[in-house]
């Protein structure tokens, strides 16, 4: 039995792979690398700027994001001062650069006050990001965004707001330790829609304790009342050190059937499926701005918890989930001086084989692997470099569609198995060795 066949006999929910390699494969870089050297060979004409706000008003029971709940104002101010120092040092290292995309995420960016939000936007503008020229997305929450903060987003040219609703049923959000009131969610959505943001994205979760196909459909129908341009359906993952992770319960119950319920409903409502998680409405605006390809173009991450991709070096601050560890990392970041941000201390150096792995993994889980693009970039053939792709085809999980190797519907619903299956041996070994904290 092959490794793929063995995995197919188990759960289809192994891990959500949104980047490669996973952050648990990162390690201290000794000696540290100079920031100028890291970016020296990277193209800088189509970068992605990501600013991470590592604070939330509360921590949901399923959350393993890098965030601290309920920070005191002096902690936020110290973090913001360090963010300014980091942005200045990064701008110096990058030199002339053009950004094709930008996003402010977290955590919860709208936990910040109006002046603090304005400062974050000013930092992005100083680096060369003009939201009126390139797409910019900001995450909001119903508990923190109000008319004044939403007006800042609108005035700054944000064209996409994203909100993690998770469920429109209060009993379900309570089950994942999220004290959210549906009336507040609906009022926030009314506010965002009234301001005319071109793209509204809503996140929903399936697999919550007590959830059924009928209750999941209730949430989907409630979401569609606001005609979101994008919907993301996330399977519930229970990870180490989270509230749910400390409960002795297997969480695999109905996720696959709930996924199919949601997928079929949204397809019937005219949404197109972009990936396992993402669904786009017919009325969604066309992509604008320069072309950005995550497999090839770099990402500049600012803020503790953000990741940066500079060619063969991926780097970030250290990662943790436990509250004490997260707060300690934020404090250490806030105490750094400007020059220290010129050192890359923690990350992963991708050799030629890992760069090929990354291209194939990210391509396959999105639009598919294009042999021509792969050959142009690496000078070899994807099928020859990755004979394991034939296994996916043999199991009906992928096929050639007009010259592009794409996942089938059966493959898409197993994206969270296929992604980890494609991890290199070296990355898997590092992830196994990682000590959660």
TrEMBL record:
GO molecular function: 4 iron, 4 sulfur cluster binding; catalytic activity
Cellular component aspect of the GO annotation: cytoplasm
PANTHER family: COPROPORPHYRINIGEN III OXIDASE (PTHR13932), RADICAL S-ADENOSYL METHIONINE DOMAIN-CONTAINING PROTEIN 1, MITOCHONDRIAL (PTHR13932:SF5)
Species annotation: Corallococcus sicarius
NCBIfam families found in the cross-reference section: PRK08208.1
Pfam families: Radical_SAM
InterPro entries for the chain: Coproporphyrinogen-III_oxidase, Elp3/MiaA/NifB-like_rSAM, rSAM, rSAM_sf
Example GO BP: porphyrin-containing compound biosynthetic process
Name of the protein in question: Coproporphyrinogen III oxidase family protein
PROSITE patterns in alphabetical order: RADICAL_SAM
Positions of the Radical SAM core domain: 41-277
